[in-house]
Structures are given as C-alpha cells and as structure tokens.
Design brief:
The protein has ten helices and 13 strands. The chain is α/β, with parallel strands linked by helices. The strands form four sheets. Strands 1-7-6-4-5 form a five-stranded mixed sheet, sandwiched between helices. Strands 8-13-12-11 form a four-stranded mixed sheet, with helices on both faces. A hairpin with a 3-residue loop joins strand 12 and strand 13. The protein binds oxa(dethia)-CoA (UT7).
Length: about 325
C-alpha cells in the first residue's frame, strides 16, 4: 500500500510586489535581487484583516473542487506553516472550519520551509498504517506578516501563498516511494523569530527592537542549505538506485536560485527537469513546493519520477521520492 497525491490546489494573492517597488522602499536594486537570489516579484496578501488561513482556505477549496472531494470525507488535515493566524488555535483548525472539514484531526506542523515535505511524509506514514484514507496536506504562509520592510537583507526574499494536496492510498506502483527527513536543532540560532513565544513573550521592548520579524544570518543558512539539500537529494537517489537520467522532475524549495543550482549540480539532473518559480513568487517557505506542484501539475505524467527537497529553519530538511499518480 502506497500513499499517492491525487490532486493539487493552490492560491496566491493578487498583489504583485516587484523588485522595482521594493527598491523605492529600501536600499536595494532589481539587479542585486535578481543576480543574488533569482526573484523578480512576489505576491503579498495586502488586506490586513486576512491571515494565513485565508490563503489555506483558498488552496483547499481549489483542491476539493478539482478532485470532486466532499470536505466531510477528509480524515486528517496537516497545515505546514510558520505564520499561523495565532499561536493557538491552529491554522489547520480554522481552515477545516471554513471549508467544512468536520470529521478530521487537524493540526499545524511547524518545520518552517520544510513544513510541506515533513507534512507529506507524515501523511504517507498515516496512509501506510491503513488508519487514514483521505488526507489533506497544506503549505500556507503569510510571510509578509513577519517581514521587517526596513531590512533589505530579508524583505526582498519572501512572499505569500498556499498550496495543498490530497493524499490517498493506492495499490499501484505510484506515490510516495521513499523519504529522508532530518533535523539539526543546533542550527536554530541562525534563522528565527526571536520574540512572541514562551522564551520571549511580546512586550513593548520586543516591538521596539523589531524582534517579531525574521532574523536570518544569510550566509550560514545559505551554506547549510546548499550542503544538506544537495546531499539529501543525492542520498535518496542512491538509496533508490536512481540515476540522474531516471529523474523526470526535481522540485527544490525556492529560497535562492544559487542554492537550487548547487542541488542541480550535485544530483546531475538536467536543468530542463528542474521546477523553478522563484522569480514570480519568491520564497513562500512551506508553500513553495506545493506551489511548484500546482504550477506544473499539467506537465506531469503518471509514473514520472519526482524528487522533492527542502531546507529551512530548525534546521529542518529532507527529500521525498515520489512517482506521480495521474
Ligand atoms: O528558506 C529557508 C532558508 N533561507 C535560505 O535558504 C536563505 C539563504 N541565504 C541566502 O539566500 C543568501 O545568503 C541571501 C540572499 C540572504 C544573501 O545573499 P548573500 O550572497 O549571502 O549576500 P551577503 O549576506 O553576503 O551580503 C553581500 C552584500 C552585503 O554588502 P557588503 O557587506 O558586502 O558591503 C550586504 O549588505 O550584499 C548586501 N546586501 C544587499 N545589497 C542590495 C544584502 N541584501 C541586499 C539587498 N540589496 N537586498
């Protein structure tokens, strides 16, 4: 029994924040962002009354309507997010309520940019246990809610969006074939949201010092992302006797085109098989891989060998080998 993705939904907000507009807001240029990161524009959820759940709801509604699935048939909903509407209740429970998912366990999974791949691995294990038959895995982020738009080292990098997949059992030789997931908590200090949790609850001081927005030591994160994403992708290929020419699609987390390039070189997969949409969405953290699936779904064929790989705060990273199911 395998777990297979049987549908993909997605949503990005309408507002397009271009490099040009950013360069009017802070000391940066289109040239710097394009050459150092590969981003041209990103989507921003402008309405301050709307949160991450709004993006998740839109993606799940798209998924349910495309697959003809009744919300009451969903048994498990996992939402990978670092920008939940609240610390509690979970974003997953809000999304479930708004789309009519009433017969499910729903929870958030906090693994930053690896939230979706951690969620899909968890869903695959739940399907293989034979306890669950219909699972929704979401990656949803309103990254703009944790950005300091005075900080040129982080503000250009991130965007908002959500993607969702339906995961079901199959007896065919398709679906999630293998995964490798890893965590190294020692890396936590390099990429974090310092305040707002129990270690440093919100106070006037935390607001004054901008501690509720992303803190990132870019170079340290870059170095680790390059080595771990490349290595785990190569490892899952080795483990499953996959050569570069066996891979139909490589779908890396969209944080930096230079990190993607390093992964491509390490795996030997040719560039025309690499899914890249960073130029139009930026880094949407947990939403980046499901948004790639959403963008590329029409190009996939049943049986295609696909590698998903992500790296993010924690540090958390991993790779999934799947055979596309439809
Ligand atoms: O998604 C989860 C994990 N996150 C990541 O994977 C992100 C990993 N890190 C990165 O992608 C890169 O480290 C960044 C894109 C964040 C930064 O790129 P970099 O090539 O590592 O640049 P840097 O931090 O070494 O900075 C180089 C220069 C500095 O100027 P000086 O000190 O050399 O004069 C920065 O101040 O670039 C400057 N700089 C900028 N210049 C124009 C930094 N940000 C900007 C900017 N515009 N937006």
């Amino acid at each position: 029994m395998n777990a297979v993705i049987t549908g993909v939904g997605g949503y990005v907000p309408e507002y397009v924040l271009t490099n040009r507009e950013l360069s009017q807001m802070m000391d940066t240029t289109d040239e710097w962002i394009t050459t150092r990161v590969g981003i041209k524009e990103r989507r921003i959820l402008k309405d301050e009354n709307l949160a991450t759940s709004h993006l998740g709801v839109k993606a799940v509604e798209d998924l349910l309507s495309k697959t003809g699935t009744k919300p009451e048939d969903i048994e498990l909903l996992i939402c990978g997010t670092s920008t939940p509407d609240h610390i509690f209740p979970s974003c997953a429970s809000t999304i479930a309520d708004r789309v009519g998912i009433k017969n499910a366990m729903a929870y958030d999974l906090q693994a930053a940019c690896s939230g979706f791949v951690f969620g899909l691995s968890t869903a695959a294990t739940a399907i293989e246990s034979r306890r669950y038959k219909k699972i929704v895995v979401i990656g949803a982020e309103k990254m703009s809610s944790i950005i300091n738009y005075n900080d040129r080292t982080t503000a250009p990098l991130f965007g908002d969006g959500a993607g969702a997949v339906l995961v079901e059992p199959t007896t065919e030789n398709v679906g999630v074939m293998d995964f490798i997931m890893r965590t190294n908590g020692a890396g936590g200090k390099h990429l974090q949201l310092k305040a707002g949790g129990s270690a440093m609850p919100a106070s006037h001081q935390t607001v004054d010092e901008n501690l509720h927005t992303i803190y990132q030591e870019g170079r340290a994160v870059f170095k680790n992302a390059v080595s771990e994403m490349s290595e785990v992708s190569a490892e899952i290929m080795r483990k499953n006797s996959l050569k570069s020419e066996d891979i139909n699609w490589l779908i890396p987390h969209q944080a930096n085109l230079r990190i993607i390039d390093a992964t491509v070189q390490r795996t030997g997969v040719s560039y025309d098989k690499v899914v890249v949409n960073i130029e139009k969405y930026g880094n949407t953290s947990g939403a980046s891989i499901p948004l790639c699936l959403w963008d590329m779904e029409k190009n996939f064929k049943k049986g295609d060998n696909i590698i998903l790989t992500a790296f993010g705060a924690g540090f958390n990273w991993g790779a999934i080998y799947l055979k596309w199911g439809y």
